[in-house]
Request: fold
Amino acid sequence: MLDPAQIFKSTNPDNNVIKATEAYTQEVGEFDTDSFVIYRSEVYGKGQFGIPKELVRIIVGYSASEAVRHDNNLSPVILSLELNNLPKPRDIHRIIALKKSDLGANGTFQFTWDHYDGDGLAGYNIYTAESGNLSEEALHNMTKQEIIEDFNWSLQKKYENQSIFA
Reply:
């Protein structure tokens, strides 16, 4: 059983938050985030999908790729094909697959990656997913796009500025 982890580059978390929010509000018009969800570019009543209220503010039409492009901290907590908020493959810095046997004595995974050394990097957003019963060989034969689309990803750490995760 493998546990892939996705790592996203993100820039300064404080820049353009208001601008990005204003631009998005202008694009879709006035709406109440407690009542509506943006799903595949259409507005639906929240009750039609049974999406938990806590996720509505996170999902509202914002993908991980949009979050890193607009230099803001609106990174989605959950990424999935169903929520239509998956990142573009080019926005993923690294996909790391870990086996349950890689679990440390303290009950955590620890791994490193090549650190981006460019300007303006606030840190990495780290997402994880479980591959279920998928074999190691099957995972290795998947394309990056398939790995992104075939799993539901959960945000584990935001703006990590070290090249290590535990």
